[in-house]
Design a protein that fits this description.
Keywords: Cell membrane, Disulfide bond, G-protein coupled receptor, Glycoprotein, Membrane, Receptor, Transducer, Transmembrane, Transmembrane helix. The relative contact order is 0.13. The chain has 13 helices and eight strands. The chain has a single domain (5-336), classed as Rhodopsin 7-helix transmembrane proteins (Rhopdopsin 7-helix transmembrane proteins), CATH 1.20.1070. It is mostly helical and 377 residues long.
Length: 377
């Protein structure tokens, strides 16, 4: 048995523990001792190679994709509508998270050694979970809005931007308020072996016989967020899309409805992939992880748990696909932005082509004066 194991309870010191539970070192109260399995995991390729690779992909894709999305929503979309407002806020939530990802990359590449201090660790953890729950809530808002637009096309409520803005403000206020508990306890832990400082990885248990007081705050927080901020929006999203498909199914003879149905199916598939990959595993494992810690159970598959949290960050890359399939305007604006077309150029082209007639013989647009122009703009 190694020198650290003598301070651990039998259930932890036998090498089977994978809960990342630490106990204060009696010889040095500024350090925490962990079992061999935890120490090995902190040194493994899972946490020092796989995780930073995923975060590098998230940063490389999420930063430009969400930056362009915000640019399109703010400067290229003239007619704002509720869907664009929800999508802009979703892109902002993703961007606020992505800008902190380099710290996660540095942390894992440095052998899970956090060198930026406790306050910055709390901020990064807060933005991580804030992004996840903001994404869930805004996707739920988009799903309900999508159903309402299709089911009530003549309703003025579908164009009520004030309601959308109010909902977005409420979502931001709710998420920031519920993130407060994450600032009320320490996330950094100084480990004796390996000689590193972890950030939101190791849970320090003060009393092995009664572990619940040491994890009471995060336990209540993640149980509440899992049941209220994850499960309830999931139900809302499922109901909204079932009703949406029902409305589109009732008008199958209409070619427009058929096109909307195909688009809705693709959108549902993208949202489903986002939830199955990013949100369902991470939220389930958060509840399971802290429930087991509360009962003092160490062997709880921490490797899978930390991997699901990493995969949750992929929503910052998948969300732009939701914008792409929800809004035709967004698709057109992205194409024009990539082609370096200004808003004035796009408007001139639209006006020019609206005054032309399409000739089937020449397969081109012909102006009133007989001038022929290509349609490949």
């Amino acid at each position: 048995m190694d020198s650290c194991s003598c301070f651990l309870p039998p259930s932890i010191s036998n090498g089977r523990g994978r809960g990342f539970i630490g106990f204060v070192d009696p010889a040095n109260t500024n350090q925490v001792v962990v079992d061999k399995a935890t120490s090995d995991t902190l040194k493994s390729d899972l946490t020092t190679v796989f995780l930073p690779i995923v975060y590098i992909v998230v940063f490389a894709v999420g930063l430009p994709a969400n930056g362009m999305a915000i640019w399109v929503f703010l400067f290229r979309t003239k007619k704002k509508h509720p869907s664009s407002i929800y999508m802009a806020n979703l892109a902002l939530a993703d961007l606020l998270f992505v800008i902190w990802v380099p710290l996660k990359i540095s942390y894992h590449l440095n052998g899970n050694d956090w060198t930026y201090g406790e306050p910055l660790c709390k901020v990064m953890v807060s933005f991580f979970y804030g992004n996840m729950y903001c994404s869930i809530l805004f996707i739920a808002c988009l799903s309900v809005q999508r159903y309402w637009v299709v089911a009530h096309p003549l309703s003025q409520q579908r164009k009520n931007n004030k309601v959308a803005v109010g909902v977005c403000v409420a979502v931001w206020a709710f998420v920031w308020l519920t993130s407060t508990p994450l600032y009320l306890y320490d996330h950094t832990v100084r480990i004796k072996d390996p000689n590193i400082t972890t950030c939101h990885d190791v849970n320090v248990i003060q009393d092995a016989l009664d572990p619940f007081p040491s994890v009471r705050l995060p336990y209540y927080y993640f149980i509440f967020m899992g049941l209220v901020v994850f499960l309830v929006p999931c139900v809302v999203i499922v109901v909204a899309y079932v009703l949406l498909l029902g409305v589109l199914g009732n008008s199958m003879g209409d070619s427009t409805a058929s096109k909307n149905r195909r688009r809705a199916v693709v959108l549902i598939a993208v949202v489903l992939v986002t939830f199955v990959v990013c949100f369902v595993p991470s939220n389930v494992m958060l509840v399971v992880h802290y429930s087991l810690l509360k009962d003092g159970v160490a062997d709880n598959g921490y490797g899978f748990y930390v991997s699901t949290l990493c995969l949750a960050s992929l929503n910052s890359c998948l969300d732009p696909f939701i914008y792409y399939f929800v809004s035709e305007d967004f698709r057109n604006h992205v194409k024009n932005t990539l082609r370096c077309r200004s808003s004035r150029t796009v408007e001139r082209m639209r006006v020019s082509f609206s005054s032309m007639k399409y000739s089937k013989r020449s397969k081109s647009f012909v102006s009133d004066g007989g001038t022929t122009q290509s349609s490949s703009c």
